[in-house]
Amino acid sequence: MTVELLLYIAAMAIVTYLIRMIPLTAFRKKLKNRFLLSFFRYVPYTVLAAMTIPWILYSTDSFITAAVGCAVALILSFFERSLTLVALCSCAAAYICSLILSLC
User: Fold this and answer.
1) How many whole angstroms separate alpha carbon 98 and alpha carbon 90?
2) Are 64 and 101 spatial neighbours (Cβ–Cβ below 8 Å)?
3) Is 90 exposed, middle or buried (0-12, 13-18, 19+ CB in 10 A)?
């Protein structure tokens, strides 16, 4: 390994540690602000959606098939189906949609 690579690894370790340590030291008391509590409650869902939605919509060659698969996943998730069923049905819907589009 080169020295430059080791410096990159060390810098990332320090940044990762600081990101996790600073909130623990800054917020020693229990938060009582309703705005901050609601903000921190929704941050994980927002970040997850921001990371996954673009990948979902560009996961196939056609935006239409990806949108159909995403719609099926959202509908099944709304009705609280299992994660395995949601994944299988959304993949199947995208595949069937691509077959239909290839025939047209």
Assistant:
1) 12
2) yes
3) buried
Instruction: Measure the CA–CA gap between 85 and 73, rounded to whole angstroms.
Output: 9
Find the Cα–Cα–Cα–Cα dihedral 55, 56, 58, 59, rounded to 10°: 100
* Tokens, residue 10: 């060390």
pLDDT in tens, 69-93: 999 999 999 999 999 999 999 999 9
Sequence letter at residue 58? Y
- Assigned token pair, 86: 């949601």
Tell me how far apart the alpha carbons of residues 79 and 5 are, in angstroms, rounded to a whole number. 48
Q: Considering the entire predicted model, what is its pTM?
A: 0.61
Q: Give CA angle at 63 (60, 68), nearest 5°.
A: 90
Every domain of the chain and the residues it spans: 1-30, 36-103
At 7, list the tokens: 């410096």
51-58 mean pLDDT: 88
- pLDDT bin (cut points 50, 70, 90) of residue 29 is confident
